[in-house]
Amino acid sequence: MDKVTLRRYQAILREQLGVLQGHNDGTVGTLEEDTVSHADPNDRATAESNRGFDLRLRDRDRKLIGKIKRALARIEDGSFGVCADCGQPIEEKRLEVRPVTTQCIECKEDQETRENRVKPELSTADAPAKPKSSKSKSKPKSKSRAK
Description:
The chain has four helices and no strands. By secondary structure, it is mostly helical.
């Protein structure tokens, strides 16, 4: 990959990194400021739910920040844009959409196929067996006619 393209991806990744770090700083500030005690249980529940949602989002951001930092390191060491599995170049279309990727589309599809093949087996094996009915089968009534 040429230097101009690498610099473009580096700029994109650094911009994303700055935005994500800004989100995290804002959340920490909000959590520190939000020490209001709500008298109404519904208000407390809503505040707690919102806080949990914000923390989940920041956790996703934290994981993406790690991926961005590793992608920036790959740009520095010259391995950016090369599939970690097969060693082939990753298509630019894929890098445009997901610059943190480490796999070409073929290797990623293979990985997802393997994962999907394993998941159904686990879910059916882990499913509890259907309990047998405790009802005893009654014998059919005989049709005896009184004469």
